Amino acid sequence: MKMESDLNRFRKIVRGKIKQELKKYIASGDLIGRQGKKAITIPLPRIDIPKFSFGSSEKSGVGQGDGQVGDEVGQGSPQPGQGEAGEGEGQHSLEVDVTLEDLAQMLSEELELPNIENKGQKNVEEEEVRYSGILKQGPDSLHHFKRTYKEALKRSISSGEYDPDDPVVIPIKDDKRYRSFTVIQKPVANALIIYMMDVSGSMGDEQKEIVRLTSFWLDTWLSNQYKGLERRYIIHDATAREVDHDTFYRTKESGGTLISSAYKLAVKLIEEQFSPNEWNIYLFHFSDGDNWSGNDTAECMKLMEKNLLPVSNLFCYGQVESRYGSGQFLRDLTKQFGEAHDQVTVAQIKDRDAIMAALKTFLGKGK
Amino acid sequence: MINNTNLSPQLQDIADSLAETAKDAGLDCFTTIFEMVDYKQLNEVAAYAGFPTRYPHWRWGMEYERLSKTYTYGLSVIYEMVINNDPCYAYLLRSNSLVFQKTVIAHVYGHCDFFKNNYWFSKTNRKMLDKMANHATIVRKLIDEVGHDEVENFIDICLSLENLIDVHSPFQATHTKLSQEEKERLGNKPVSKISSKSYMDTYVNPDEYLEAQREKIKADAQKQAKFPEHPRLDVLKFLMEFAPISTWQRKILNIIRDEAYYFAPQGQTKVINEGWATYWHSKMMTKLAPLEVSEIVDYCDHYAGVVASHGGQLNPYRLGVELLRHVEDRWNKGRFGIDYLHCEDPRDRENWDTQAGLGLEKIFEVRRIHNDLTFIDEFLDEDFCHKTKMFIYDFDPRTGKYVIASRDFNQIKQQLLQQLTNFGNPRIRVEDGNFRNRGELLMKHLHENTDLKHEFTLETLKNLYSIWKRPVHLKTVVENVKRRICFDGHNHSIEKI
């Protein structure tokens, strides 16, 4: 189809426009909680070819119908000569359907994120058998009666043997059809992401929102990289617990902060369910950096060094700024692991606009 | 000629017999080829404005997507599509019922007759289908030569100026030929010498003589300081002739201009063209080749849809057909001429009927010589205005709603004519191609009550600059103050003048 290429040109332009506005979409909370493959509709400013034309400020025109002077007429700014289909669209914005996956892809292009390298031998694939084809040869156990009958009927009609009054159809060898199977390779999920979020009292609503936005986009992008990946969500204040996706994005709690509690839970989770030999493991932790005590921080470092880092691809720590938080944890982490540690990435997320930068920091290593 | 039109024999018969009916009724059409398409194909053709062979450009894709969406959501359906070409091509939507198909075929014959016989279409290329294909070939070749983005960007720029044409120029004698002076200015022509053998040259054309010639040319040039001599409405042509653009760019500009001129009459005759086609399809379906009794309800339903005015908006189909019928009625009853016009007694006017019976003849004349502007100017009278309940609406900023502002005949007509002038486009002309003697371009918007859309004006000036490559100025009126808007390659500036 010739239209295809023009359509693609147009879509490319739209993509460019979306990229320009990407920051806006990322910082807005509207998309949160949406799931991967569904298309979402985002409004774009209309892509117009500018011309010298009359302004829309001049809003009067000629209409037709009943009513007294002063009565309201239908909406819109109609103009004569624009009633025909294909013309006469007003000032509407262009509505574009994109999937979250696409959006994530654009995000990665915009941030120039590298594709993720696989950790070792993990491209485990599973074989699945599907009966989807038809063959002329096969075992009788796979005999497809309907198809065979159809073939026989076709043959007998076309050869003139068929008699509607005596509809006997006898299949010959050539008519026989058999089911056949194909083997499908299915990749097995091999990436695990554990999100840990501090929901203690010192985290304000805006901070939580930023964390949610960041982890949401991380999630979207990573699911784009690994088809069928495992996600686990941990929230913690003084104690940690595992929650589901919805709770993670919506919960509001308060209390003290013991970061180690979350780490301990993560360690437990990995030990019990995910063998590090088979899984690419990503850890993301968001907090305002305000831990209860230095002892607990030391405990965290120990846990990381001993239990978490050896088994994971990447440990990312994102610190949001809050009024109460000291931001100490980030400094402690940097002190412990240095600025350019291979596996540990830290980022400060000051406000919504900094989310893009944080994503870049987290994912820029291509681990 | 064999065409793969996918038309069923039944429809072909209907088309042929309706063609006969149309011919008997006095319509004079090009051979019309109907093609049966599904909605996807129709949307595609419609996105290409009727020509499946057009040059590649993203805006067809945008239009196609928009049409597909409105179709999917059931917001609008295109019933037919017909193009001004010889032979005339028309597309029928497969999913339409038989009644619709008949109606559409009759409607198409109306358009086709109009294309062939209306004066304003007389200068359009009747082999446009082929020409469009040629245009596409040229553009594709240029894309191969200079690159897709490059070409597409330049097309965008040209399209942004495509409405700057002079719709009346095809009907005027070719006065646009370059004047001698202009040629000299342009070519920087060397002084003319008296022809001589080379060894005689210094004697035949001595230095003093050449110097004198040079002086003379200079003086002439100063006398003829105006460039262009007369203001030009055909800005595109002016740019083609004088803008410093490369050959391939000139080719593209030419293509855009060609197509703009081809489509211009359709913009100029929307009301009358649709009115004419609607008049004839309704006449054929109900009188000349009447539908079956069982079909008539469906037909009426369809007709009501065609002439409905949604939310008080003016529907060109309805305005056109009603005004044509009004004209027919007047001339049938002899309601014209000095006696009728001077008749003041409403009752006499109401009952005026001289049995003149000239209606049909008159509307054929109307279809031959009028465009929307002249049609409405000449025939939209007070009676019609009241009968069809026309009004002016205005935006009421207090309530944020559109309200009926007036039912005054003169105002309505004024407004309508203004909207139709220059097929709804502002009239802008080149005043000076050497503004301030610095090679800058000065254009003037002939302001008639309505301001230009500001953001668009700024953007368009940018595009104009990228063709002219020197600062560009536009004289216009913004909120009742005369302004000159300028783009100098970096910034816009607006001066009061």
Care to describe what's here?
The complex is a heterodimer of chains A (367) and B (497). With 367 residues, chain A is an alpha/beta fold. Chain A has three domains: 1-49 and 94-112, no CATH class; 125-185, no CATH class; 191-363, Rossmann fold (3-Layer(aba) Sandwich). Helix content of chain A is 35%, strand content 21%. The radius of gyration of chain A is 30 Å and the shape is flat. Chain A starts with a helix and ends with a helix. Residues 75-91 of chain A have low confidence and may be disordered. Chain B has 497 residues and is α+β, with helices and mostly antiparallel strands. Among the domains of chain B are: 9-118 and 269-300, no CATH class; 310-421, no CATH class; 423-496, no CATH class. Chain B is globular. In chain B, the strands form three sheets. In chain B, strands 6-7-8-9-10 form a five-stranded mixed sheet, with helices on one face. The longest helix of chain B is centred in the middle third of the chain and has 22 residues, at 247-268. Chain B has 21 helices and ten strands. In chain B, helix 1 (9-24) packs across helix 4 (98-117), helix 5 (128-146) packs across helix 6 (148-159) and helix 18 runs antiparallel to helix 20 (409-420). Classes of the chains: A alpha/beta (367), B alpha+beta (497). At the A-B interface, helix 1 and strand 2 of A face helix 2, helix 3, helix 6, helix 12 and helix 14 of B. Strand 2 (61-64) of chain A pairs antiparallel with strand 4 (390-396) of chain B, so a sheet runs across the interface.
Quick take:
With 367 residues, chain A is α/β, with parallel strands linked by helices.
Q: What is the strand and helix layout of this fold?
A:
The complex is a heterodimer of chains A (367) and B (497).
Chain A: H1 3-27, E1 39-44, E2 61-64, E3 94-99, H2 100-111, E4 125-135, H3 145-158, E5 178-187, E6 191-198, H4 205-225, E7 230-236, E8 240-243, H5 245-250, H6 259-273, E9 280-287, H7 294-308, E10 314-320, H8 328-337, E11 344-349, H9 355-363
Parallel strand pairs in A: 6-7, 6-9, 9-10, 10-11
Antiparallel strand pairs in A: 1-3, 4-5, 7-8
Helix pairs in contact in A: 1-2, 2-4, 4-9, 6-7
Chain B: H1 9-24, E1 32-37, H2 39-47, H3 58-72, E2 80-83, E3 88-93, H4 98-117, H5 128-146, H6 148-159, H7 180-187, H8 201-204, H9 207-223, H10 235-242, H11 247-268, H12 270-288, H13 296-307, H14 316-332, H15 337-342, H16 346-351, H17 359-369, H18 372-379, H19 382-387, E4 390-396, E5 401-406, H20 409-420, E6 428-435, E7 440-445, H21 454-468, E8 472-478, E9 481-487, E10 492-496
Parallel strand pairs in B: 1-3, 7-8
Antiparallel strand pairs in B: 2-3, 4-5, 6-7, 8-9, 9-10
Helix pairs in contact in B: 1-4, 2-3, 4-12, 5-6, 5-11, 6-11, 12-14, 14-17, 18-20
